[in-house]
Amino acid sequence: MGGALASAPALAAAITVSTRSAAAQRAVGLGSLVRGDLDLCLVRFAPNYHYEAPHEWLIAGMPSVYRGHAGLREWSADLREAWELLDHTPVEVIDAGDVIAFLCKIRLRGRVSGIELDSRLGQVFWLERGLIARERDCSDWEEALRVAHRQPGRSSGEQRPGRRDPAA
Hints:
Helix content is about 30%, strand content about 40%. The chain has about 170 residues and is of the alpha+beta class.
């Protein structure tokens, strides 16, 4: 599995600096996923983990949903098969306790085509008992915010979670 999957230290540093909340700091383990260290990464994910990939990232034959630790391993392998380069940098963090949303700048290079893409990615994580139980990635930040706001258990009258700048 060659290729450069970069910026895990930048991801971890940005998350740690961006917020002091324990919930957001638990997401630091995602850097290990980006660099392919799945054994370290899996300790942060619930056994019943559910991941919904952005449709723009999928190549023919890839599922749109991955489940459990085996699904996370499959997603990582599929990601590495499709993309030679994945550079992932957080730009903004919204921490609502059991739901965390990240706006990330992402750069991808297709393994076969060599085509490079620069875009933004919204990521929403739901935490249960301190572990990441669900993740949904969105190619549109506003969609990610809508998804995060519709979380189960949140009433429509609750305030929108506070935004934090990772560079702060």
